[in-house]
Amino acid sequence: MAPPLLLLDRISVSLGSVRLLDGASLSVGAGERICLVGRNGSGKSTLLKIASGEITPDEGTRFFQPGATMRYLPQEPDLSAFASVMDYVLAGLGPHDDEYRARYLLGALGLTGAEQPANLSGGEARRAALARTLAPSPDLLLLDEPTNHLDLPAIEWLEGELKSLSSGLVLISHDRRFLENLSRAMVWLDRGQTRRLEKGFSHFESWRDEVLEQEEQDFHKLGRKIAREEDWLRYGVTARRKRNVKRLAGLQTLRAQKRDYTHKLGTAKMAALDAATSGKIVVDAEGLEKSFGARKVVRDLTLRVLRGDRLGIVGPNGAGKSTLLKLILGQMPPDAGTVTLGTALNIVTLDQGRAALDPAVSLADTLTGGKSDMVQVGTQSRHVIGYMKEFLFRPEQARTPVGTLSGGERGRLLLAMALAKPSNLLVLDEPTNDLDLETLDLLQEMLADYPGTVIVVSHDRDFLDRVASSILASEGEGRWVEYAGGYADMLAQRAGAPTTEQKPEKKPTPKAAAPKPAEAGPRKISFKEQHELKNLTAKIETLQTKISQQEAALAAPGLYEKDPKKFTAATESLATLQAQLAQAEERWLELEMLND
Question: Would the pTM count as exceeding 0.70?
Answer without folding.
Answer: no
